[in-house]
Please model this.
Amino acid sequence: MEEIIKILEEIKPGVDYRTEKNLFEGHILASLEIIMLVSELNDAFDIKITLPYIKPENFRSAETIYAMVQKVMDEE
Amino acid sequence: MQYNSWLYVVVFLSCTVLLYYACPLRQRWMILLAASTAFYVLASRQLILVLILSAAVIYWAALEIDRGESRYQQQKGLLSKEERKRLKENLAIHNRRVVAAACMASFGILFFLKYFNFMGSNLNLLFAGLRLPLTIPALHLMMPLGISFYTLSAISYLVDVSRGACPAQRNFAKLLLFLIFFPVITEGPISRYGQLGGQVAQGHRFDFRAFCFGIQLILWGLFKSVVLADRLAAVVGNIFTKHSDYSGSVVLVAVLLYTLQIYMDFSGGIDIARGSAELFGITLAQNFARPFFATSVNDFWRRWHISLGAWLRDYIFYPISLSHPFQLLSKKSRAHLNSYYAATIPALIALFAVWLGNGIWHGAAWKYICYGLYYYIIMAAGMLFEPLSVRLLALLHLRRESRGWHLWQMLRTFCFVNLGMLIFRADSLRTAWTMFLSMFTPYHGKSLLQVLSSQGLNSNQLEIVVWGAALVLMVSIFQERGVGIRTWVAARAIPIRWSIYIAVILAIIIVGAYGPGFGVVDFIYAQF
Model:
């Protein structure tokens, strides 16, 4: 979780990722940041996040991103 | 049948609502299918067969994917991890082929009907340039109603099924209803199956509050469309047609009035569509979110024709950006560039496809392609110069959060949007350029008001436009501050509430653009 927050802060600083629950719908993470985030997550966790995972509910908060990473790791 | 016609509102919609709620709950979707089919046949006659063909291809493809997934689910428990992985990979390849074949068929129909003559005329120019004795004849092709909208909805459904985001619909008639649903077929919003498919297929009980909200939205849409957009159509059309007679402020005002016209026309049509659906207890996706409050071109496209932007993002931008070659490019970029440019450069390549797609979707003409690329250039420049802009602002001690900076961004975006609208509305790129240049030449003819009056917008009409636009602006400001206008109206005492309803109805009847000088105006986006 801490690693995900660190990645998020590097991509877009100035957001409280521990409390923010509206990252996608609030356009805090726009499509460019989503792509940056996916690339960073793929590298950091040695996973491959595929298109079916790119949906709003997976990018609403640091927790949902963490849950998505866990799911991808489990499936791999 | 136009959404803003009395025939639609008073006869078609009212009868459909009565039949819908008179029918047993489980059969109500059939009323919607019958009404949507009737609506479509009235507009496009036998061309409904084209839509049915597209729907059949997508239906088959989705079931094929579903069957493969079911087989995998049945077998996976009996297989080792390695075998399971191999089976999954084979299934993914099979699904990709099915999706590609169905998309080629669907897009093939769209491209043939919408772009064949455009491609043919350009190839003929090329052949002539190369002195080749070849000519592609122009065909007299009829466009089925809403082909650009339902094709995108159909493809999004199939891709979503292949991604596991929604289940395949086993009932062909219900899938057809999702594609042909009459409130969305003319102008969108471009629907997603996960959002609309289930809603149209199930019966809804009568909900008085949703029904009232639906009527309010229809009235508001009619106000924008009949009182404002239709009133501006004549004057804008006349000045754009005779643009060579004018320059300076006249051309500038014509462009501003066109921007106002297209916004009122398109957002008004969408309000009527959303309101119509709400009468049946169905909620459609938002397609507008106060676009003229946007602080950047990027932000504008998140607020204008939202469903098209979201479609291009989900089905073009993400697949390209997350594809293997782009991920490799991204990795290589990170080795040579700073993290911002490493992410930006591959994204810019993917965005080119997005904006080219946006332009092509709007129509078969170079001006539409340039319209898309115009926004691409602005957006790309904004992204490339972003670090420089941050440094420059820090140097000048300007705060991005300040009100002044915010207003400047809104004004700048508004100017970019108006230039885009000039490209969109002008007959050709050459005309757009000529009109753009002519804005910088003062006009020495009659006064601006006299010109507007002679072209169909006299001082009384202008007054209605100004007050109407001010009302829409006021409502937008409230909405931007999070105030739900319909909820606010619903919470007022009956006399106030009904005074508002009657005022809007009277405005539509009394100051609507009917009679001499005004004709029935087609919705601008219905032609796409």
